[in-house]
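C-alpha cells as discussed.
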C-alpha cells in the first residue's frame, strides 16, 4: 500500500528503536525519509532502507538540541528532497534520578533534547509547510508526561511540555492545513528500556492490562496513521499506545 507516495518525512532519532521502525514504515508505504540521529546510527538505518527501497532514505547527523545545527540540516533536507510533508519528533533521552538529587546538567540535557529539540525541528519546517498549506507534525511524548513517574522529573516535564506544544501548534496551524498531534507510548522494548533493572520492569508490567510490553512497530503504526490522509481531521490529540496502562 503506497499511502506515502510522493511524501517526504523527517524522523528524528531514526537510528534505533521506535524511530527506526517509524522511518522503515514510511519507506514501506512508498515515502521518502530523512533519517536523523546524533551518531552514525541513522546512516545504517538509511542504508538498510535503501537496500529494499532504493533512494528512499538519506541520513543526517545532528544534535537536535543545537538550534543552529538543526537550521542547517533542515535547509539541507529541503535542498535534498525539495519539500517536507511530515515531521516526526522522536529523538529523546533519559537521565533518571530523584528530583532532590537531580543535577542541573541532567535537567538541561533532557529538556534540551526532548522538548527544545522538537521545537527546533518544528521551526525548521514550519514556514515551508505553511507556504505549501499542508503538513503533519507528530511529537513522541510518553505516558510519563501524562501521569508523571518517580525518578523522571526532567523526562516527565519534557514529555508533558511536548503535549502543551502540540496543542498550541495545532491551534496556530490548523487554518494552514497542518495537523499537529502527539503519540504517548507506554513501555516499549528498545535500548532505552532495556537498561532498566528487572525489578522496575516487573513493576511496570503489573500496571499493563494487556500484560506485555509494546514493540516499536506498535508506535510506528500509530504515527503512520496520524501522518496519513485518513487522519486529516485529527489535530491537537494525544494517541496513547500503552496496552491500557493509562486510561483517560
Ligand atoms: P532509543 O534510545 O532506542 O533511541 C533514541 C534515538 O534518539 C536514537 O536514534 C538517538 O540517536 C536519538 N537521539 C537522542 N538524542 C539525540 C539528539 N540530541 N540529537 C539527535 N538524535 C538524538 O529510544 P526509543 O526508541 O526507546 O525512544 C524513542 C522516543 O520514544 C523517545 O522520545 C522516547 O522518549 C520515547 N518513548 C519511548 C518509550 C519506550 O518505552 N522506549 C516510552 C515512551 C516514550 P543515536 O542513535 O545517534 O544515539
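Sequence:
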Amino acid at each position: 500500500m503506497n499511502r506515502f507516495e510522493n511524501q517526504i518525512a523527517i524522523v528524528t532519532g531514526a537510528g534505533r528503536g521506535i524511530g527506526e521502525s517509524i522511518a522503515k514504515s514510511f519507506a514501506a508505504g512508498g515515502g521518502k525519509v530523512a533519517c536523523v540521529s546524533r551518531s552514525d546510527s541513522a546512516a545504517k538505518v538509511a542504508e538498510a532502507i535503501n537496500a529494499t527501497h532504493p533512494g528512499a532514505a538519506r541520513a543526517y547527523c545532528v544534535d537536535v538540541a543545537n538550534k543552529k545545527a538543526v537550521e542547517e540540516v533542515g535547509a539541507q533536507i529541503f535542498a535534498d528532497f525539495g519539500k517536507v510533508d511530515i515531521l516526526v519528533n522522536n529523538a529523546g533521552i533519559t537521565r533518571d534520578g530523584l528530583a532532590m538529587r537531580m543535577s542541573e546538567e541532567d535537567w538541561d540535557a533532557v529538556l534540551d533534547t526532548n522538548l527544545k529539540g522538537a521545537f527546533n525541528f518544528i521551526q525548521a519546517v514550519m514556514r515551508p509547510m505553511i507556504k505549501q498549506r499542508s503538513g503533519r507534525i507528530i511529537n513522541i511524548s510518553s505516558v510519563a508526561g501524562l501521569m508523571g513517574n518517580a525518578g523522571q522529573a526532567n523526562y516527565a516535564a519534557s514529555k508533558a511540555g511536548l503535549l502543551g506544544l502540540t496543542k498550541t501548534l495545532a491551534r496556530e496551524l490548523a487554518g494552514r492545513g497542518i495537523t499537529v498531534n502527539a503519540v504517548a507510548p507506554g513501555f516499549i522494548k528498545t535500548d532505552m528500556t532495556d537498561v532498566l533493572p528487572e525489578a522496575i520492569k516487573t513493576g511496570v508490567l503489573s500496571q499493563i492490562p494487556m500484560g506485555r510490553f509494546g514493540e516499536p512497530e506498535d508506535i510506528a503504526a500509530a504515527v503512520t496513521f496520524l501522518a496519513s490522509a485518513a487522519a486529516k481531521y485529527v489535530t491537537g490529540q494525544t494517541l496513547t499506545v500503552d496496552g491500557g496502562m493509562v486510561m483517560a
